[in-house]
Hints:
Layout: H1 29-43, H2 48-58, H3 68-83, E1 87-108, E2 119-120, E3 130-131, E4 155-156, E5 161-169, H4 175-183, E6 192-196, H5 202-211, E7 216-220, H6 223-226, E8 248-249, E9 258-261, H7 263-270, E10 294-319, E11 323-333, H8 341-363, E12 370-377, H9 385-393, H10 395-401, E13 402-407, E14 416-421, H11 426-435, H12 445-451, H13 470-476, E15 480-486, H14 499-506, H15 511-529, H16 538-557, H17 564-583, H18 594-607, E16 610-611, E17 614-615, H19 619-627, H20 630-652
Parallel strand pairs: 4-8, 5-6, 6-7, 7-9, 11-12, 11-13, 13-15
Antiparallel strand pairs: 1-3, 1-10, 2-5, 5-10, 10-12, 14-15, 16-17
Helix pairs in contact: 1-8, 1-15, 2-8, 2-15, 3-8, 8-15, 11-12, 11-15, 13-18, 16-17, 17-20, 18-20, 19-20
Amino acid sequence: MKAPWAAAVIALSLASLGAAPATLRGYTPADSAGELRVESQFVDIPSAQGALDAVTAIAARPHYAGTPADYALAIDMRDRMRAAGISAELEPFTARVDTPRELVLELEPQPLPEAAAPRKRRGRHSAFPVALALAEAAEPGDPATAARSIGVPFIAGSGDGDVSAPLVYADRGTNAAYAILAHAGVDVRGAIVLVRYGAQFRGLLAERAQARGAAGIIFYSDPKDDGSARGLAYPAGPWRSLTAVERGWVGSAIHIPALPISAANAQILLAALRGSAGPAGWGGTLPVGYPLARGPGLVHLIVKLNRKPTTLWNTVGIITGVHGDQSVLLGAHRDAWVYGAGDNGAGVATMLEVARGLGFLLRAGWRPQRTVVIAGWDGEEVGLAGSRAYARRHSIDLARGCFAYLNADTNVSGPAFAAASAAALAPTVLDAARAVRDPGGAGSVYDRWAAQTAHGAPRADTPAGVSDGVPFLTETGTPVAVLNFGGPFGAYHSSDDTLAYAMRFSDPDFSLHRAAAQLYGVVALRLADAGYVPYAFSGYSAQLRSASAQLAARTARGGQNADMPSLVRAIDRFSTAAASFDRGLPRGAGDIGGRELRAAREIDVLLYGASGDASTPLPELASAIATNDATLISAALGHAAAALQRATGALTT
């Protein structure tokens, strides 16, 4: 549980922390002093009350993508940025949005005829005496969870289906889980599989079930993973209650019906199975067996969705810089599955408090060297629709001069600080953490981070499936960073993600929200105002070497003939150039050349990939190796070497 933090937050003077370097990366000594004065003014503006006001408005009612409430919040964000003195407009776009038309889950717990096959059914039948209630139960003490407007949980991207089939519990839905079932003689073909969340992105779990011939998939969250086995469940604590359901999106390649249910409903289904016990580690902690079995319970699953092109709305605020063709982009998605106080009211509130701080600087006469763009994305929960639409619409501007994208998504859910970034931005992220006061202590956020780090000094993690950062990082190569105060978040994608939950457990006094806005603002200011954008390239070297070594080991195990040494030589040449560049980073006034951005874009697209929420280093090469196709592997190695050569050339020009 989160410890209470002091309600009063001391106004910050960055120099008083004694952690900021005398000369900032990319600045002259004189310009460093001026930058610190600007940052000192900025960090005093974001407030806990301002963030609370924003989250209160955001979480006032459900605002799924494309709903009137979603549009109203797009307008509200625009108007709040305008009130701060920032030019802001809506950018409408069209995306597919799914909504439920019919959702049914029924159970016949009687024995099935041997080798029963899935049977199509229409509507509810007396042969299925147990009809499971799919709506979430209201939580005591949180009236918002009782609202009729919440709706029944569903999976966006699910296929339509009306099937009756034996039930199979497939544990976490991994390849290993299906191997265990196969070894036990349990056939999942034609069955409806019950899978507990947590191992991988739900879309990958659905694709695997579909590929193995399942007739449908049902997801649930087990108390072992994010519920009462971890600690007190909501409303007594921050972990998931038995009746809360994780909604979600599975991508665009699923044609079998998919449905999310609560742990309470999963317990009813599991009780209908009869079979031998699974191996150690199989199953969760519900008071029921998790057998290796096909039935005898028969499940009737109906999923029918409305799928239609829908107008959605990005909110975009712009502070035009001296060099208008160069920019720093910040963003957070606005849509939510239900109330979204944490996911992603926290992110939107962070952006709005950054906007208030920058607006204050504007009125005081400041103007950034580079344009600062602050965005509220729509449709993130249904496939990163808003950020992808923006990246397509503004692809030329992004390629020409967007030096960073800073993403805030569910960025305040507890007291543990962490960050992830492309290697180019990592030093700037670390320096910003040193420059912002810890809201719960006398030191900096970096000091909090260090105290929570088991071994060695804190470091930014490798970015993985960084939400709306994915289109920018993996498609345009824009370096991405995220900064989070994290903790148990059992309300994820459920109707429990309310203002009451946030105020009880995530951040009772909203001081972490304030610190988040200060951090994002300081990073944005240092990137926007630097004489030379303070990229660092040496951090890429270790990541490239680690990824190539892992892939080389995989090719060796598979007996594949891949010229991995040529890739290693290209990495070595790049590493030499990167180290030389970092040692000679210009510290003076003047405009950064495009070569540094070109180098970062080449390496980011080459190195960073995402498979759901997981990182996939060297994604093109990894994908080629997975196919075991020598032609594809050779081509991927050639592309990687060429990208490294272009990056090396850019750094040594």
